[in-house]
Amino acid sequence: MRFDVVTIFPEYFASPLECSILGRALEGGIVEVGLHNLRDYTTDKHKVVDDYPYGGGGGMVMKPGPLFAAVEALQEQEPRGHVVLLSPQGRTFSQSRAGDLAARERVILICGHYEGVDERVRETLVDEQISIGDYVLTGGEPAALAIIDAVTRLLPGALGDEQAPDNDSFAEGLLEYPHYTRPAEFRGLAVPGMLLSGHHEQIRRWRRKESLRRTKTHRPDLLERAPLTPEDLELLEEIAEEEEVGIDE
Ligand code: ADE
Questions:
Q1: Is residue 160 part of a domain?
Q2: What b-and-e string marks burial along 201-229, b requiring 16 or more CB atoms within 10 Å of the CB?
Q3: Which domain-ending residue is among 152, 185, 203?
Q4: What is the mean pLDDT of residues 222-242?
Q5: Are 49 and 43 in contact, with CB atoms under 8 Å apart?
Q6: Cys-Cys with 176: which of 116, 169, 186, 220 at CB 3.0–4.6 Å?
Q7: What separation in Å is there between the alpha carbon of 3 and the centre of ligand 1?
Q8: What residue numbers bound the domain in which 101 lies?
Q9: What is the pLDDT of residues 149-197, one digit of tens each?
């Protein structure tokens, strides 16, 4: 899969793209990332990408000309890219939307800046707008990186053999169960005995229950939407009973 990023700060991406899973995925050819400086698509001497808003008011607006020129130049290459504008006005990014993007061959990410982009860019150049959360960043670059990261780790081979994205938080609409590693006791804090028992089926059930418990406590909104099995409903009943008598584990 290929990402093309249109940005006024291509250098912003250099070190994150070299590190860890992303770095390996790029080296292994699992994902390609093209960085395109928006200023290269300007036609004036000063490479200006923004201008004052019609109607007055504060802030600057990204001009349509360089953005259209950049995306049109990129679309001359095959396959056609799905064009995403990073913006706080977009639909909120999620694990399931990461999965949708991972199924595409090519995604073009436009990083917005200033007060926003000329509305004609949103209307005619962009296929969808994505926000990574209800807060305002100084530009779309951190959002583009978050998306490249979340999508890349879903691509076949990106996580290597040992890890699979299936157990991730959100993979099934729930938060992940708690993890422990050695030592079995640390500063008087013991690992739950169940995990040391070697009973695979009981461990699976314990993990599922803790996953449900966490989601219920921290993200009840997710629990409402999660597809629950009859076993999940049973476990949730156990959790409710434990809460009633004030037992946490
Ligand atoms: N640009 C500024 N804020 C943003 C956000 N929350 N998500 C995506 N792009 C942005």
A1: no
A2: eebeebbbbbbbbbbbeebeebbeebebe
A3: 152
A4: 97
A5: no
A6: 169
A7: 18
A8: 2-152
A9: 999 999 999 998 656 777 677 878 999 999 999 999 999 999 999 999 9
